Amino acid sequence: MSCALSSALRGGSPASRAVWFLILLTACPGTGTVSVIDRGSLEQGGDLQVPGDLRQDVPVVYACDIVDILFVVDNSNSMAQEQQNLAANFPKLIQRIEAIQPAIQSYHVGVISTDIGAGPYSGPLVGSCTPGGDGGQLQHTPVGSGCAPTYPAYLTGPASSVSQDFGCIAQLGVGGCGYEQQMEAALKALTDQPANNGFMRTNAPLAILFITDEDDCSASDSTLFDPNDASLGPYPARCVTHEGKLHPVSRYIQGFKALKSKPERVVVAAITGPPGAVQTDPATGKVTPACTSSEFGDSLPGNRFDALIKGFGDRGVLQSLCQGDLATPLDVIGKAIERVCLE
Length: 343
Fold this sequence. Notes:
This protein is 26% helix and 15% strand. By secondary structure, the chain is an alpha/beta fold.
């Protein structure tokens, strides 16, 4: 049913106009429920009377006038090919977003890294980690040929330049901290980073998209990263062998849902390694991959991401990075965003 029904309000009796108005409310974008009544229940020319036994609450059809999309991109040293592939396939995602009907009038696209440091630790043993890292701040430094000299903190569309601009700001490089705190970076970006003000809008559905080849290592106890504490074992496996030093995944399920008055308007997606048993190589101390692709290399078991996604039901999307191409995963995510707009 179309909002063009508003033309029916211009004529007819007061009673008929009242009925058309109630029908119109159910067809136009909005939230909540409205009451509709049968035309025959009205007295001709009288006031609008809605007998209690004739009321029927029906959901208002949602439509996305605006949408906000946050990409959380792993920028550790194994992610160059994935970043390039994301930039190449992003136009297909944005085409799906722009094809949603009723048409989206405005969308924001932001990019953050997974690097928020390794607590207070830095130095050779901690690799490229520095205290605080990128702090969940939106990344917009241009990389590559054909890019503008500068970009705003986040991209705004619809605009013909969005796809190319995204390719310029989403390839974050591979110099980020190897202890990826993906979930904490996203939560910080959306709740505790003043530099990101204006990106997330109150009434907009929100999509949070993680792209990473390692499981989340959001630490509640930063001593997990202490290079001088040999009792914690080899560095590469600490995030999976000391889960007690990590924030519970429930922190992020609750935190992301709390961003909206209607939690069902939040989509959370992860393109990462599939969930599975965690094993370590005794010789290297590294975690055994869950899967491998010739295009992207190894992806570790994404067990924490699996738990996060399950917390969002049909608003959660988990896709394997070992598909070797992000076209299909991004299309699945696009469909999830579309469902939020149309349900």
